[in-house]
Design goal:
Length: 180
């Protein structure tokens, strides 16, 4: 890798420069929030993940060294790991009581959900690794190579996840009347 565009900024953060942190947060926060919101389907949890991501950057910036991946890739990996931690905790929470959830689309007087919300709902209902690949490539606008590095898989494996993820989304959306 030739040079990391964030290398000087990370060095300043590691030295305790609050202006450098502010600069990184201003530039990176919207992408990290979007990534976490799409992975978790919950804006409040996304904010918590973003906050923890930046806390980890602050604590670990002085030890970061340029390697095979860009700093931005490392930041995305940290955020993804935090998302997966939260998703695992959700699965571990067991109760005998089912939540009372009403599908707003099933109410007679409710306006239909806009397609964007339906797609977001469908995204939450595909396999997590497929969701991760789709979010990184289509929403975070990473190249296949960058997304593969972030996910720590080969480009071929990423492309397979993308293909399966698109098919899963199409199946869910077609089944629910979006893609008619």
């Amino acid at each position: 890798m030739n040079g990391d565009p964030d290398e000087e900024l990370v060095r300043r953060i590691g030295a305790g420069d609050p202006a450098a942190v502010q600069s990184l947060v201003a530039r990176t926060l919207p992408r990290i929030l979007a990534l976490a919101a799409r992975m978790l389907g919950d804006a409040t949890e996304a904010e918590d993940v973003a906050q923890e991501t930046f806390m980890r950057i602050w604590r670990n910036a002085s030890r970061w060294q340029r390697g095979n991946a860009l700093f931005d890739t490392w930041v995305h990996r940290v955020a993804l790991n935090l998302c997966y931690d939260r998703l695992r905790r959700r699965r571990e929470w067991v109760t005998d009581d089912l939540p009372d959830i009403v599908d707003p689309a099933s109410l007679p007087d409710a306006p239909p959900l806009v397609e964007e919300h339906r797609v977001a709902w469908a995204l939450q209902n595909i396999a997590p690794r497929q969701r991760e690949a789709i979010v990184l490539v289509y929403y975070q606008e990473m190249s296949n190579i960058e997304a593969a590095v972030t996910m720590r898989i080969s480009v071929d494996a990423l492309e397979s996840l993308l293909s399966r993820g698109r098919r899963s989304l199409q199946s869910i959306l077609t089944r629910d009347g979006i893609d008619e």
